[in-house]
Amino acid sequence: MAKQIQAIRGMNDCLPEQTPAWQQAEAVLRDLMRAYGYAEVRMPIMEVTGLFKRAIGEVTDVVEKEMYTFDDRNGDSMTLRPEGTAGCVRAGIEHGLLYNQERRMWYMGPMFRYERPQKGRYRQFHQFGVEVFGLQGPDIDAELIMLTARLWKTLGVNEHLVLQLNSLGQPEERAEYREALVAYLEQHKDQLDEDSQRRLYSNPLRVLDSKNPQVQALLQDAPVLGDYFGEQTRAHFEGLKALLTSAGIDFEINPRLVRGLDYYNLTVFEWVTESLGAQGTVCGGGRYDGLVEQLGGQATPAVGFAMGMERLVLLLDTLDRVEAQPALADVYLAMMGDNSQAAGFALAEQLRDQLPGLRVMSHCGGGNFKKQLKRADKSGAGIALILGEDEIARGQVTVKYLRGQGEQQILAVNDMIEQLKKGI
Known about the structure:
The chain contains 15 helices and 16 strands. By secondary structure, the protein is an alpha+beta fold. The strands form three sheets. Strands 1-5-6-11-10-9-7-8 form an eight-stranded mixed β-sheet. The protein is elongated.
């Protein structure tokens, strides 16, 4: 017997019993994007490795440890995308979508990171992302946060999410703060864990994001980034907070919120929950005004966010917000007799032509009347249409109600179709 092949660790199947929750979340997201006037963009799942090194930063965990990178047959280094922003910016520059233009775009699809698989975090995962280009005020930052707040409300999970907000200032302000932070941490270097010591000189702001309680306690007396902000940065952050307050959106200021990628400036935010245990971030984003120029385009203000679909679906499931799974069919067509199948398939296609919204499942695989009705019931259909040789000869069909809506009856095919149009 041949050895059974299994899925790669951390790359999971989404089975038919699980897809309704995904479809529910995806449908809400698509409707939300239409309501706000955002257009979909679709990028390849593989890019040249240099794109992510330049965009994300070579000393980030993603680039250092998590990317799926390999040489193709030409010896060029390729990477399966670990996130969507870099590819979206690359596409915008390449196709001339960004310069002196306003663009509001969204995407959804698989991403890849090599990390230890755990609940809600996998090596192939799916992200929904939004990117906006050409707008530099705090108003568009506020709109993106309002948009996500509306999403939580629509899905019925808003009471379980908290908005955390911070500003990273501008690069020159961060550079000055970076010196002060490094100087402080050097005085306490022996109290830093191995990971924080590694980041001390390469990416010291990520030390602020440490999950180590000892490091967090040490940071209580560390310099605060906000003390290094200039007037414009303060005005941007105050403007954002005022807009959110006027919209009735509660938030917490988290001065340790830095996000994991190098391209952020000014606004950063995360929606976090305590309903998923340690993996509490459901959605995060912020401004990245320097990234377009960094990747070869003209200087363009930009802001966006992304959310892990696995986390979102897990949250819906944990909070029992997944809608009841719909029936597979409205009508099940049972066919009895040697010559009934061709006529049955023709009738099924006629129903689909005349009633486009009707879900019709045709019986396949033979079997007696009892077996066919059992499958009809399992499909969840409310009506079974029974087509035997006698019905075919008379141009009729037997209508059997499977959920107690009425008495079984024999109708002419056209009469049956008219009744279906009325919604029986």
